[in-house]
Amino acid sequence: MKASGKNSDNNEPAVKKYEEEHFIDTTKKVWNYSRLSDEDVTNYQQGTHYSIYKKMGSHSIEVQGTWGMYFAVWAPNATSVSVIGNFNHWNKQEHELYPRWDKSGIWEGFIPGFNLGESYKYHIVGFEGRAVDKGDPLANFWEKRPLTATITWDMFYEWQDQEWMKSRKKNNSLDAPWSVYEVHLASWQRPDKNDEETYNTYDQIRERLVPYVKELGFTHVEFMPVMEHPFDGSWGYQCTGFVAATSRFGDPQGLMRLIDAFHQEGIGVLLDWVPSHFPYDAHGLFMFDGTHTYEYADMRKGFHPDWNSYIFNYKRGEVKSFLISSARYWFELFHIDGIRVDAVSSMLKLNYSREEGEWEPNEFGGNGNLEAIAFIKDLNETIFRDFPDVQTIAEEATDWPGVSKPTWQDGLGFGMKWMMGWMHDTLDYFKADPVMRQSLQDKFSFSMMYFYDENFMLPLSHDEIVHGKSPMLYKMPGDEWQKFANLRLMYSYMWTHPGAKLLFMGDEFGQTTEWNYKTELDWSLLQFDGHRLLKDCISQLNTLLKTESALHDRQFSQEGFEWVDLDHRPESVIVYKRKGKKAADDLLIVLNMTPVPRMDWEIYTKGKKYTKELFNSDEKAFWGTGSVFNPEIRTELVDKKEKNWKITLNLPALGALILK
Q: Rounded distance, CA 632 to CA 647, Å?
């Protein structure tokens, strides 16, 4: 690739000052040159430099009429740092960087004639003479694993998503419809489903995935981590390149084209982002300069027992600048619409997955990691300040208060939080034999007791169909027809429950095996009516979510939901309203949780009468029986003054009705 010739982030006054104060010997292979101002360094050290990717790492620039590559890396305990690669036959003495005069621990230099597309590492001699070869933490591109070097790259791209960027504020707001399709890019489809070493390119994924998601009607996609990672079995959650799109599918611009294509079809893009831990691979962040540079030195805080990985030292300003810059990088350069922050619970609590004696309380005697809490708040404040039309979403599984409350209300500042309690209770309810559901009704309805504590997203994610938990379809009880009917019923409940929705790939058509990252989804199932028409059911639910304002306008407001009937436990018939800003927009949802049709079922409701059956999960179009439906809604005004109505309906077995 050729350099773009653009260098908008070059700090010319600082460079001029530095050139005046420091002689550049052009006869040497590395020139003593800096792009970092004193202010840059101070902010970096204080944890307030939120675009450090513009200053450090590798950058193609022109110095005194000569094009080459500027390198800058933080290695505070190093005694020497050099750039090595194919360009110098991995010679450790040939291209040595210079330590900054300000004792910041930053090593830097300009190598004239260094090209884009070159592989390189830093050879670092650190504490007690320990020598390590490390990839660049701020590189934008890495070699495809199992190779481990970083690559110099130009990130220029001409975006075509201007219309989306102008209007995305309304599409990403909390009163917009939110249905998210969660995707693992490698295993959604493979060129060879029997060969885990084969990958579609970003462009091939774009050609297939974008029209598929559009057909299904999802409002957003969420990619499981696409940041560079060495081990496929980590699913991307053990990251080494925090500002690098994985090279498994091509170069960074390929991911940009994929996101751009989604935006042009009116679909938002979320990325999984993992600031909670990182792996111990030799080329990564662990023991970066021979000491605990990025991780806590005290392993009671620095080691993660669940994942055999290492925890960022959120107290260090340089680490905080690195992580918040990483998040901003994806918003700024890749136009993403949100991040789902992984494993927030493990960041918040010092005693997460630790027994007594394995952790040390904070200075106030509590179990909160005060530095991590401060980092999370600064992260959210920065993202919403700089990108006010996006969302941050927490995977947080405890009862930590105020996760999605603003920081000025003493919250953590996320836009939304995954509703893990809803997920567990819902699956427990639907996995039960319908005869037993009457005894589980309190568990079913419990979500609305605490729903308004947070802005919740309802997740049926990848975690629920792995490690022996069974695929979603086979969680359902009964014979084949009942399994599909139960699954359609559960999805109908999910889509009509307040809050945003997230569904993992394959669940939309009833994958019959657990998710396996080594292969691909079983697309052959779509030749069978039950699976193909289940997908159509999801598409119809997404259409209703977007077109019926009652399903999203007040999805986080107490005015948007009302229980109508929880008094028929033996029959397990449950009725509730989703309420819009206008009474005429209200919807009535009726769920029959047993395989027994209920004919002439009476419901009493207040306000407007309901005259139209908008949706019936038992339609033949969804592989239902099609035998129980309501072409006309029988209504009777029983109290004119109070506007009380009696509605008489036919309820399909294991069926959901939506009335308007």
A: 11
